[in-house]
Amino acid sequence: MNVSIVGSGYVGTTVAACLADLGHEVVTIDIDEDIVDAINDGESPIHEPGLDELVAEHGGGRLRASTDYEEILDTELTMLALPTPSNDDGSIDLQFMEAGAASVGEALAGAENAAADPHLVVTKSTVVPNTTEDRLAPRIADAGLERGTDFLVASNPEFQREGTAVADFLNPDKLVFGTDDDRATELLHDLYAPLREAADGDVPVVETGIAEAEMIKYANNTFLATKVSLINDIGNICKEFGVDAYEVADAIGLDDRIGEQFLRSGVGWGGSCFPKDTDAIIAAAREQGYDSAVLSAAVELNDAQPKRLLALLDDHVDVSGKRVAVLGLAFKPGTDDIRNTRAVPVIEGLQERGADIVAYDPVATENMRERYPDIQYADSAATALEGASGAVVVTDWDEFAALDAEFEDMADPVVVDGRRIIERRDGITYEGLTW
Ligand SMILES: NC(=O)C1=CN([C@@H]2O[C@H](COP(=O)(O)OP(=O)(O)OC[C@H]3O[C@@H](n4cnc5c(N)ncnc54)[C@H](O)[C@@H]3O)[C@@H](O)[C@H]2O)C=CC1
Ligand SMILES: O=C(O)[C@H]1O[C@H](OP(=O)(O)OP(=O)(O)OC[C@H]2O[C@@H](n3ccc(=O)[nH]c3=O)[C@H](O)[C@@H]2O)[C@H](O)[C@@H](O)[C@@H]1O
């Protein structure tokens, strides 16, 4: 199939490279010329395991990039993988989606020979229920197009995680096709047929309505975010009793009804999606007159975890004027993404305390340096720890588990672990956030 993807960021590039690898001809359209050039040169514009290889193999070939929306005319289907950030009040900001939808409409309207089949425009981005229907289809139609004849719309939310995006896309737990038209459903089946054939096991397809598909994405993300907040809540209780929350989590995870995943308690959830999506659906529901008590509590608890981490550090050392190591800046291991990382409230809390911060991350340092140019950055965990009067662990990078003699070089070996990655040992004062 010939496929176009508007927006070549984390999702757009991963989906495009994987679809090209599965045999489709794919073009991504982005306003950022550096991204476009990188892809055409066979270089991945983002850090994501496995993506370099796919872009190197297909970039400039079955995978192309362009700044020109006219490219969609040679394709049967266009996915919108544009940002859906938050407004100041937490509600969803649809400006990028609406601009993209309008550009798609203009390009389709400019076609010299109207295509025999209507072009399918698929919402890949995470949007609140009814966005495709009420906000995007009308923007496409604004160019003088008729829905049903000139174009169709659908929702096909994405469930990949950063750090494992390629593997997740190629072996999803489910595919969700939200449509109101048989032809749209058929095109989505054609698109994913090679993936379902190549996947390790059966990939269930959920055929549903467009708004239901949009809501499934929010239900998925907020359920998982709330699960982590719940285990953090339980973990905080465990800590009060001197009980190891990880032993408790391992045991309850054996109950199939609970499941073993997303039970790692600690400094909380960050990233480009859990925080913004939770805020967006809370705001959207409130606009309809419903206040979600559980989701609001999940956010509140998440905001409190970095404060609890710093309070544990305060119990052992007054960090004012002292060197403090921050280990891990990315919102999770395997990515250089710092969007909504828990490192931000931790760094800001340490700054308020007057600490002399030295931070280290294996891949996210440059991103963080742009945001906080005034703190120090070490090129290894060992250098960050040298002479430090305290260390806080924010990201569970594997390499932190191997730290050992490095703690001996600390001025005051107090380690507060927000991710259960460092073993308790003699010679350091160790505090786990929930254990
Ligand atoms: N990051 C992730 O792992 C996941 C993200 N999502 C959702 O996917 C959507 C996209 O997220 P990301 O890929 O992380 O965003 P991103 O910010 O990494 O990428 C968006 C891209 O769109 C481009 N862009 C902006 N305006 C444009 C326009 N008018 N025309 C063409 N290109 C334009 C930007 O230059 C950027 O490259 C969001 O709704 C997000 O919630 C869903 C699942 C996973
Ligand atoms: O919509 C999205 O963008 C994506 O959001 C999450 O993926 P992602 O944010 O990449 O990463 P996760 O692995 O879900 O982790 C999110 C946060 O929760 C934290 N977390 C996760 C699991 C856990 O047990 N404990 C915990 O604190 C992580 O450290 C991280 O900060 C979802 O897992 C994906 O399914 C979804 O597609």
Automatic annotation (TrEMBL):
<dbReference type="GO" id="GO:0006065">
    <property type="term" value="P:UDP-glucuronate biosynthetic process"/>
</dbReference>
<dbReference type="InterPro" id="IPR028357">
    <property type="entry name" value="UDPglc_DH_bac"/>
</dbReference>
<comment type="similarity">
    <text>Belongs to the UDP-glucose/GDP-mannose dehydrogenase family.</text>
</comment>
<dbReference type="InterPro" id="IPR001732">
    <property type="entry name" value="UDP-Glc/GDP-Man_DH_N"/>
</dbReference>
<dbReference type="InterPro" id="IPR036291">
    <property type="entry name" value="NAD(P)-bd_dom_sf"/>
</dbReference>
<dbReference type="Pfam" id="PF00984">
    <property type="entry name" value="UDPG_MGDP_dh"/>
</dbReference>
<feature type="binding site">
    <location>
        <position position="126"/>
    </location>
    <ligand>
        <name>NAD(+)</name>
    </ligand>
</feature>
<dbReference type="Pfam" id="PF03720">
    <property type="entry name" value="UDPG_MGDP_dh_C"/>
</dbReference>
<feature type="binding site">
    <location>
        <begin position="262"/>
        <end position="266"/>
    </location>
    <ligand>
        <name>substrate</name>
    </ligand>
</feature>
<feature type="binding site">
    <location>
        <position position="276"/>
    </location>
    <ligand>
        <name>NAD(+)</name>
    </ligand>
</feature>
<feature type="binding site">
    <location>
        <position position="270"/>
    </location>
    <ligand>
        <name>substrate</name>
    </ligand>
</feature>
<dbReference type="GO" id="GO:0051287">
    <property type="term" value="F:NAD binding"/>
</dbReference>
<keyword id="KW-0560">Oxidoreductase</keyword>
<feature type="binding site">
    <location>
        <position position="332"/>
    </location>
    <ligand>
        <name>substrate</name>
    </ligand>
</feature>
<dbReference type="InterPro" id="IPR054886">
    <property type="entry name" value="UDPGDh_AglM"/>
</dbReference>
<dbReference type="InterPro" id="IPR014027">
    <property type="entry name" value="UDP-Glc/GDP-Man_DH_C"/>
</dbReference>
<dbReference type="InterPro" id="IPR014026">
    <property type="entry name" value="UDP-Glc/GDP-Man_DH_dimer"/>
</dbReference>
<feature type="binding site">
    <location>
        <position position="217"/>
    </location>
    <ligand>
        <name>substrate</name>
    </ligand>
</feature>
<dbReference type="GO" id="GO:0000271">
    <property type="term" value="P:polysaccharide biosynthetic process"/>
</dbReference>
<keyword id="KW-0520">NAD</keyword>
<feature type="binding site">
    <location>
        <position position="84"/>
    </location>
    <ligand>
        <name>NAD(+)</name>
    </ligand>
</feature>
<dbReference type="InterPro" id="IPR008927">
    <property type="entry name" value="6-PGluconate_DH-like_C_sf"/>
</dbReference>
<feature type="binding site">
    <location>
        <begin position="159"/>
        <end position="162"/>
    </location>
    <ligand>
        <name>substrate</name>
    </ligand>
</feature>
<protein>
    <recommendedName>
        <fullName>UDP-glucose 6-dehydrogenase</fullName>
        <ecNumber>1.1.1.22</ecNumber>
    </recommendedName>
</protein>
<dbReference type="InterPro" id="IPR036220">
    <property type="entry name" value="UDP-Glc/GDP-Man_DH_C_sf"/>
</dbReference>
<dbReference type="InterPro" id="IPR017476">
    <property type="entry name" value="UDP-Glc/GDP-Man"/>
</dbReference>
<dbReference type="Pfam" id="PF03721">
    <property type="entry name" value="UDPG_MGDP_dh_N"/>
</dbReference>
<feature type="binding site">
    <location>
        <position position="162"/>
    </location>
    <ligand>
        <name>NAD(+)</name>
    </ligand>
</feature>
<feature type="binding site">
    <location>
        <position position="339"/>
    </location>
    <ligand>
        <name>NAD(+)</name>
    </ligand>
</feature>
<feature type="domain" description="UDP-glucose/GDP-mannose dehydrogenase C-terminal">
    <location>
        <begin position="325"/>
        <end position="424"/>
    </location>
</feature>
<feature type="active site" description="Nucleophile">
    <location>
        <position position="273"/>
    </location>
</feature>
<dbReference type="GO" id="GO:0003979">
    <property type="term" value="F:UDP-glucose 6-dehydrogenase activity"/>
</dbReference>
<comment type="pathway">
    <text>Nucleotide-sugar biosynthesis; UDP-alpha-D-glucuronate biosynthesis; UDP-alpha-D-glucuronate from UDP-alpha-D-glucose: step 1/1.</text>
</comment>
<feature type="binding site">
    <location>
        <position position="30"/>
    </location>
    <ligand>
        <name>NAD(+)</name>
    </ligand>
</feature>
